[in-house]
Amino acid sequence: MKIDATDRKILIELQRDAAQSLDDIAKAVGSSKTPVWNRIRKMREAGVIGAQTVMLDAEALGFEATFFVLIRTSEHEADWQAKFLKALRERPEVQEAHRLAGDIDYILKVRVQNARAYDQFYQALISEVKVHNVTALLSMEEIKATVALPL
Fold first, then answer.
1. Architecture of domain 59-138
2. For residues 119 and 41, what is the distance between their CA atoms, to the nearest angstrom?
3. Digit-coded pLDDT (tens) for 8-64
4. Per-residue pLDDT averaged across 125-141, rounded?
5. If we measure between CA atoms, which residue out of 79, 78, 86, 137 comes closest to residue 107?
6. Where in this chain does the record put each HTH asnC-type domain (predicted)?
7. % helix, strand, coil for the chain, step of 5
8. Which of 6, 26, 53, 116 could form a Cys-Cys staple with 36, CB 3.0–4.6 A?
9. Using the 8-state DSSP alphabet, how is residue 59 labeled?
């Protein structure tokens, strides 16, 4: 799907607040409600817009610790990778997981209540899959966090 300037404005508004009314979005992008709704529908059908969700305040809910976990493995077989990916997908503490180029094979963003909860996560993970080396880095302060794309 080709995205034009109006589509970009709509996407910016949706990223800012997906709960706002169609009237508010239309007003912000200089259009009327029906054309905006049609554009949103087309972008959903094309997969440009995915599932809509809500952002929760992790600290207000008691999740005060964010760890970035660097994983090196000596295993690179398909069955190990499938088992590892399954373990990550089943752990709700893992907010993000990336396979990397370079010395580190994977990086995880893990959100937990505290260091004890991280240790429980770590012990569970290494009991499920063999890893060569794990380094956990505690985030002291979240300076910026966004899921918005720079449209």
1. 2-Layer Sandwich (3.30)
2. 44
3. 999 999 999 999 999 999 999 999 999 999 999 999 999 999 999 999 999 999 999
4. 96
5. 137
6. 3-64
7. 40, 20, 40
8. 26
9. G
